[in-house]
Amino acid sequence: MSPTRLSVVIASTRPTRIGHHIAQWVLDAVPADVEVTVHDLRELALPFLDEPGQPADGNYAHEHTRRWSAAMQATDALVLVMPEYNRGYNAALKNAIDFLYAEWEGLPVGCVGYGWHGASFAKSALRQTLERVKMTVVEGPGLEFEKTLTQAGEVSASPADDAALAAMFRELLAGARPPQDRPTS
Prior knowledge:
Helix content is 34%, strand content 19%. The protein is α/β, with parallel strands linked by helices. The longest helix has 16 residues, at 159-174.
């Protein structure tokens, strides 16, 4: 049996971002039998949605969209490492979600947020979008500035945060998309 394929997306694209530090904390906790791929939205560099057709049609005109689609088709579960900006989630993440549609259906996703209040506002807003594109949302931890996270990105997760991360992985893997159910283009 092939291992579960997990994708971890670093959502922040800011030059001074700390998302890669939080992603490393997440990656350090991934169960050993899981195959992991990291997708960095800064490196992916998707332009603002420029596909002429509707994402639901799945007919992608641009190579950048086809690459993003193939990456998400090849995953069985997803973790979004996402910041909170002004009580919302960032535009690059919204844009990346909006580029696709069928690829999201039934895909379990956990959101690891970071910011003030553990990114609770951003995670709440993002949940609505993820549910609209038919993803299965799994609760993930939120790291909070001045409590479990420094402004420089140093993670000092509490035992409760570590337990929440482990619980998120258990739920993601239990609901992971079987290989035969991966969408194809």
